[in-house]
């Protein structure tokens, strides 16, 4: 019989795991590495700890929604043993699947819609980090891009070279919709009040350079 668990978003589960104290994180990691349901005795042996030390951590992890329990009879008489399984997802696999879905879907939209989707994404990410503000400083934009996996590096005072792109997995040399999505993302992150962006997707080194243009200056 499996325990009843609260249904939560993947983001909530991952966030809970990141906030664990070190000892509890070790227990969670041990369950995750096992790859199959494990008993408290098996975990205690793997961690070289007493069962009474491991059991409270398991209870807390179940309560936090990071582990789920089931019962299994391990042989002989007596009550079935409680087995523990991890609920943590594989972020890399989720990310790869979502990127493939997003970029494949771009083939079925026009440039304007791709830009609008990117702008909405950028606005949402800016507000997550900075709150309900109309715009972000270029330095704040770069910090958010780092968190999103774009690996930006300052080359000049207002020039940023994008060295990696989590969305760029297709081999096409030019993809108008993908570049429109990028432009929308960057401009959505910047918002208003701190100038504008001149986006050059055809840079020979990486295909993407972002220039922050002060308010009142032309972008061309």
Secondary structure elements and their pairing?
Blueprint: H1 10-18, H2 22-34, E1 38-39, H3 40-47, H4 51-63, E2 67-72, E3 81-86, H5 91-105, H6 111-130, H7 138-148, E4 152-156, E5 159-162, H8 176-190, E6 196-200, E7 209-213
Antiparallel strand pairs: 1-3, 2-3, 4-5, 5-7, 6-7
Helix count, DSSP H or I runs of 4 or more residues: 8
Strand order across the largest sheet: 4-5-7-6
Structurally, the number of domains stands at 2
Largest sheet: 4 strands, antiparallel
Order of helices and strands: HHEHHEEHHHEEHEE
The total beta strand count reads 7
Gross morphology is elongated
- Pick out the low-confidence regions: none
Strand fraction equals: 15-25%
Structural class: alpha+beta
Features:
220 residues, alpha+beta, Arc Repressor Mutant, subunit A, 2 domains, 4-stranded antiparallel sheet, 3-stranded antiparallel sheet, 7 strands, elongated
Give a description of the structure.
Helices cover 47% and strands 15% of the residues. Strand 4 and strand 5 form a beta hairpin. It has a four-stranded antiparallel β-sheet, with helices on one face. The protein has 220 residues and is an alpha+beta fold. The protein contains eight helices and seven strands.
Give a brief outline of the structure:
By secondary structure, this protein is an alpha+beta fold.
């Amino acid at each position: 019989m499996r325990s009843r668990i609260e249904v939560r978003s993947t983001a909530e589960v991952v966030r809970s795991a990141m906030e664990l104290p070190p000892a509890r994180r070790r227990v969670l990691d041990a369950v995750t590495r096992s790859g199959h349901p494990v008993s408290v005795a098996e975990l205690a042996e793997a961690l070289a700890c007493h069962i009474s030390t491991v059991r409270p951590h398991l209870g807390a992890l179940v309560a936090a929604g990071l582990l789920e329990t089931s019962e299994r009879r391990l042989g002989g008489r007596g009550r079935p043993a409680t087995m523990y399984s991890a609920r943590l997802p594989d972020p890399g696999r989720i990310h790869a699947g979502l990127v493939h879905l997003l970029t494949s879907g771009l083939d079925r939209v026009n440039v304007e819609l791709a830009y609008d989707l990117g702008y909405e994404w950028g606005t949402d990410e800016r507000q997550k980090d900075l709150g309900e503000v109309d715009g972000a400083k270029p330095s704040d934009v770069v910090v958010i891009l780092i968190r999103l996996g774009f690996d930006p590096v300052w080359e000049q005072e207002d020039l940023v070279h994008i060295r990696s792109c989590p969305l760029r997995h297709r081999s096409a040399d030019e993809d108008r919709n993908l570049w429109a999505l990028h432009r929308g993302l960057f401009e959505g992150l910047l918002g208003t009040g701190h100038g504008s962006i001149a986006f050059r997707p055809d840079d020979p080194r990486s295909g993407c350079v972002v220039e922050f243009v002060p308010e009142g200056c032309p972008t061309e």
